[in-house]
Write a structure and sequence with these properties.
The complex is a heterodimer. By secondary structure, chain A is of the alpha+beta class. Chain A folds into two domains: 74 residues, ACT domain (Alpha-Beta Plaits, 2-Layer Sandwich); 56 residues, Alpha-Beta Plaits (2-Layer Sandwich), CATH 3.30.70. In chain A, 21% of the residues lie in helices and 35% in strands. The radius of gyration of chain A is 17 Å and the shape is elongated. Chain A starts with a strand and ends with a strand. The model of chain A has no long low-confidence stretch (mean pLDDT 89). By secondary structure, chain B is of the alpha+beta class. Chain B folds into two domains: 271 residues, no CATH class; 101 residues, no CATH class. The model of chain B has no long low-confidence stretch (mean pLDDT 97). The chains are: A alpha+beta, B alpha+beta. The complex binds iron/sulfur cluster (2 copies). One iron/sulfur cluster (SF4) binds next to loops of chain A.
């Protein structure tokens, strides 16, 4: 069965410069999109990937990552914006750690790019009209 | 030649009035020059859409059979307490009211998911709300309990009455402490992590009429998606606030009290709003038409975001402790660029009031006037200006001695 899943990968410092992802893609026949990549001040790596491939390959790939010492976490929760409730104020722009919100320079409307969202949930309670919603 | 409101209304009635919004007027004056533009342009429309806590509404819910006197007892709309110290079935609901059993900040920061502003939004959306009351009962009002659904269309009056709206300018809020703080200006991250501001800037009503030359009691406005009126100066009206060379206040200054029939308003422009760790409020949409009666009045409407400044204030200390200190100033042009600089540090900025919706309001008002649906009113009296000596004082506390 073909699947497409979003996963959060946390790399301890010792693994940051290892070719783990290239091995993952090569050996398990997965396609991927990088949704977010960053290295924290403590030099831990954070990678959010969308992985596409066969279900059994995906499971094997996750097992490989765990064994290699990468902490994996499915991005099963999804953050959506209720477009009816969003007032385009912009309060969320400074709250989001991944820069998923951007103000259009011309219209000043607040654009939400959900592929950048890692479902950290920080915007949920800080959006004044509560336009950001969590779905499972 | 200066125009009068009656002359402008004559043109509005004929569908010939030249109406532009406060953004468009800037280009027009650049192209035509001030004096030609003052002849051409009849009305400049403004708009603002932001959280405004001193908002509320009063209702006459109609008499029950047998009758009940709500005053002296307790009444709630969707569990939000309303003020009943009026005649039998008149109640007042404030935008920041919250349920008696809301945990508030006991679990810090409190969520404040539903309050008075949300009830107002639900009512104008046409939703039924629950009115529950207890009363003490009298010979003329014997009933002691009431629990019913009620709809805005069944009320005798549902009147929005906001005692302070449309602040002429506002603070830019930052946090210099090392812990996160939760304020009515939003979540402020430690060590100047963000700077939040709240004004429509160049589109904002009173920033386009900085000396209140046209706005006063009875001025007809766009309010909450319908028609409303300026009722009075707003609370904390402070015309004596610090102004720039262009006359535009650089701090919070003038305010308006506004009133209007809620039955013709819309949930798009009255939005229940929650501030984490602070409370509930309501985001209100207001549009003020400015009649171009003279070149001077036109000149004021051409103000741009780069010419309007506000003060950066520390909400971890200066604001709560009522200290006059400011950390600096920034223009709305800078704020809208996404960051401001303070002491060589770049601070990301966020707005709490929506510029796109303020523009939508200014444009809606423009269309109403152009179509001849909305005539201007001559105010009965202008709101107090700098020369009237109205000031904004702190409370003079005089400790009460126990006898
Ligand atoms: S804070 Fe909420 S309402 Fe404001 S722009 Fe962001 S999502 Fe929209
Ligand atoms: S949940 Fe909200 S704040 Fe967190 S990453 Fe997604 S959009 Fe940004």
């Amino acid at each position: 069965m073909a699947v497409s899943r979003r996963v959060v990968l946390r790399f301890p410092r010792s693994l940051v410069d290892q070719p783990i992802v290239s091995k993952l893609i090569r050996d398990y026949n997965l396609d991927f999109n990088i949704l977010k990549a960053s290295v924290s001040p403590r030099e831990e790596g954070l990678l959010v990937l969308e992985l596409m491939g066969q279900s059994k390959d995906f499971d094997k790939a996750m097992a490989y990552l765990t064994e290699a010492g990468v902490v994996t976490q499915p991005l099963s929760r999804d953050i959506r914006r209720n477009e009816q409730r969003c007032t385009d104020c912009g309060a969320c722009v400074v709250m989001c750690p991944t820069g998923a919100f951007e103000v259009d320079e011309v219209t000043r409307k607040v654009l939400f790019e959900d592929t950048k969202c890692i479902a950290c949930e920080l915007c949920l309670l800080t959006c004044p009209p509560r336009a950001m919603e969590l779905t499972f | 030649m200066p125009k009068t409101i009656a002359e402008i209304n004559e043109k509005i009635r004929k569908g010939q009035a030249v109406v532009v919004n406060a953004e468009e007027v800037v280009e027009i004056v650049k192209k035509m020059g001030m004096s030609k533009a003052a002849q051409e342009v009849d009305v400049v429309t403004t708009g603002t859409f932001g959280p405004m806590c001193s908002s509320g509404a009063y209702f006459n819910v109609g008499h029950t059979k047998p009758k009940i006197k709500l005053g002296g007892g307790r009444s709630y709309l969707n569990d939000i307490p309303v003020y009943t110290g009026l005649a039998a079935v008149d109640v007042f609901l404030g935008a920041t009211a919250i349920p008696d059993d809301d945990p508030r900040n006991k679990v810090y920061p409190g969520h404040f998911n539903y309050g008075g502003g949300h009830v107002i939004e639900d009512l104008v959306a046409g939703k039924d709300v629950r009115l529950s009351s207890t009363a003490y009962g009298t010979d003329c009002y014997p009933r002691k309990k009431l629990d019913t659904w009620i709809n805005i269309k069944d009320m005798n009056q549902a009147t929005l009455f906001n005692v302070r709206n449309a602040y002429q300018n506002y603070n830019i809020a930052v946090n210099v402490s090392d812990k996160m703080i939760y304020t009515y200006m939003g979540v402020l991250k430690p060590n100047l992590g963000n700077a939040n501001y709240c004004s429509a800037g160049q589109l904002s009503p009173l920033l386009n009429d900085p000396y209140y030359k046209t706005v006063g009691i009875g001025t007809k406005i766009f309010l909450g998606g319908g028609v409303g009126y300026v009722a009075w100066q707003g609370t904390q009206h402070a015309p004596d606030s610090l102004r720039g060379d262009n006359g535009v206040p650089k701090r919070g200054a003038g305010t308006l009290a506004v009133i209007g029939d809620m039955k013709q308003m819309s949930p798009r422009y009255l939005v229940g709003t929650s501030f984490l760790g602070y409370g509930c409020t309501m985001t209100v949409g207001i549009g003020l038409p400015i009649p171009i009666l003279s070149e001077e009045i036109l000149q004021y409407t051409t103000v741009t975001d780069d010419e309007i400044f506000a003060a950066v204030i520390d909400y971890s200390d200066a604001y709560p402790n009522y200290k006059p200190d400011i950390l600096g100033e920034a223009s709305y042009g800078q704020l809208r660029s996404g960051k401001i600089e303070m002491d060589g540090k770049e601070i990301p900025t966020a707005a709490l009031s929506s510029y796109p919706r303020a523009l939508e309001i200014a444009n809606t008002l423009k269309e109403w006037i152009k179509k001849g649906d909305f005539a201007l009113t001559d105010p009965v009296e202008l709101i107090p200006g700098v020369e009237q000596g109205v000031t904004f004082k702190p409370l003079n506390e005089r400790p009460v001695e126990e006898k």
